[in-house]
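2024-03-11 09:14:02 DEBUG pipeline.ingest accepted 1 chain
2024-03-11 09:14:02 DEBUG pipeline.ingest length=185
2024-03-11 09:14:03 DEBUG pipeline.predict start
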Amino acid sequence: MFYRALEKLSDTPIPVDTGDFRLMDRKVCRALRQVEEKNPFVRGQVSWLGFKQTEIEYERDERLYGTTKYPLRKMIKLSIDGITSFSYLPLKLATYLGVTVAACGFFYMFFVLFQKLFTTATVPGWASIVIIQLIFFGIVLLVLGVIGEYIGRMYEEVKHRPLYVIDEANGFDVSQLYAMKEDIK
């Protein structure tokens, strides 16, 4: 379920049901070392690099001895790392929720005002309290969503992922290109 959810949340196409066990070309390893994240989600980072991937299916034998050293708690942490490393859609949801609540608050405000002005069905003071709360909480959620958008963009910057990955350099030594990149910094 996690991989399918991550596939929907992320802009990076991460293969479904893969593990960290993989064969990689030297240039992929070199590029992966450039990604200096504190909480790496290797399954996503390898896909993010953009090199060609293929799968090799095999049947894994059952564990003969002991128990897994990767309990549910660690799997949940891994899934949270994966989602937060490759998607800031959850932060965007606050913006959408804020807009929705604010819009509902404005529409409900007209309904409450209609009830207050044209019927006797309202309790005194109720209309103004409800209107203020709905509009205020909608605006607060909207502002939190905008702050979340900025935090998401800052998060993208502090991950220090390279802007580009060199796949092939015709007429250049790739190590020289990486050295030139360091000199530019």
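2024-03-11 09:14:41 DEBUG pipeline.report The mean pLDDT is 78.
2024-03-11 09:14:41 DEBUG pipeline.predict end
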